[in-house]
Design a protein that fits this description.
Elements (H helix, E strand, L loop, with lengths): L11 H31 L6 H4 L6 H27 L3 H5 L7 H27 L4 H19 L7 H35 L2 H15 L6 H18 L2 H25 L12 H29 L8 H9 L1
Length: 319
């Protein structure tokens, strides 16, 4: 078992159990808060929410519900978990880890390469042979997801564009990164004494949570990139930045599409497969450069500074 000076010595199975229990409590709080907000802002029964939520008149209520529910579901459980199982929340989640402007530049480059690779993986996802009954079920799930998403992507004004950037791009980037990378991946990395299993398992869960078979490989790949950036840098904010920019660019594309009355299409779908293969080579190079810069930052700010968080010192030595 990896010695972690920041840990309160809970076993890793116990930590995972506590984390999942708090996540369950977060789901209950998210549901209760959604019902309260819906009743207060629409004066309609919560039982009619599924049919009423596509009504443009309830757009503001749905946006508030989106922000508050993701806070309770993804963010709050991680904070309480860190308070229970670790001495310093900031050390566990990597909120105070130093970062450099070069790391930020490489994150932006990596983001731009993620889109064509994601487009290639999306095409591969479509041609994977599956039973016909599965295909019908997955398509029904995809259609239901698109109906739910249509509530939030009606970005027909600049004010709605700014609101969408905050509610749909910024908040999910922060809350989901704290949950998946700062929470789950952190636990698994300590448990399995290394990043590979932790990143892969967390990325699978990250993709499954989004409930889209035809987007599974794309979101799994995104999860791997986000998890690798978090592991190499030990900073949650760099993965948050990439996640926000990934969401934000798609929202910007939707806003431009809707205001200019052109066909709306997810940004990564605009890239041919050959571009994805070429971008993957460039992406590997960019990740190597990001790792090199992250090691330099860790050598300067983490490993040599007196800190009782042995886990992050271990990361610096083993990267």
């Amino acid at each position: 078992m990896l010695q972690d000076g920041n840990s309160k010595n809970f076993s890793f199975p116990a930590q995972l159990g506590i984390f999942l229990g708090l996540t369950g409590a977060g789901m209950v709080m998210a549901s209760v808060s959604s019902a309260i907000i819906w009743l207060a802002m629409t004066h309609r029964s919560f039982a009619t929410m599924q049919t009423d939520m596509t009504n443009p008149a309830f757009y503001n209520a749905m946006m508030v519900i989106q922000g508050v529910s993701t806070f309770f579901l993804f963010f709050l459980p991680v904070i309480f978990f860190a308070l229970i199982c670790y001495r310093k929340v900031s050390a566990f989640a990597g909120t105070l880890t130093r970062i450099s402007y070069k790391q930020i530049i490489w994150v932006i480059i990596i983001l731009l390469l993620v889109f064509p690779v994601g487009g290639m993986l999306g095409e591969i996802n479509k041609v994977i042979p599956i039973p016909k009954s599965w295909a019908i079920k997955f398509q029904q799930m995809e259609d239901a997801r698109k109906v739910e998403e249509s509530i939030f992507i009606n970005i027909n004004s600049f004010s709605r564009y700014l609101l969408s950037l905050f509610i749909i791009a910024c908040l999910p980037a922060i809350f989901e990164e704290f949950f998946f990378r700062g929470g789950l991946q952190n636990i698994f990395t300590r448990w399995f004494k290394g990043p590979v299993i932790a990143i892969v398992v967390t990325s699978i869960i990250f993709s499954l949570v989004h409930m889209s078979y035809y987007g599974f490989l794309v979101r799994f790949f995104l999860g791997v990139i986000l998890g690798t950036i978090f592991y190499l840098s030990s900073s949650i904010w760099l993965s948050v930045l990439l996640h926000f920019l990934f969401n934000g660019l798609q929202i910007t594309a939707m806003y431009i599409s809707q205001t200019s009355r052109t066909n709306s299409k997810e940004l990564e779908e605009n890239f041919p497969v050959w571009a994805g293969a070429f971008a993957l080579i460039l992406l590997i190079f960019a990740m190597i450069k990001f790792k090199k810069e992250s090691l330099a930052v860790q050598e300067k700010f983490i490993y040599h500074e007196p800190d009782d968080d042995d886990f992050h010192n271990w990361l610096a030595k083993n990267n």
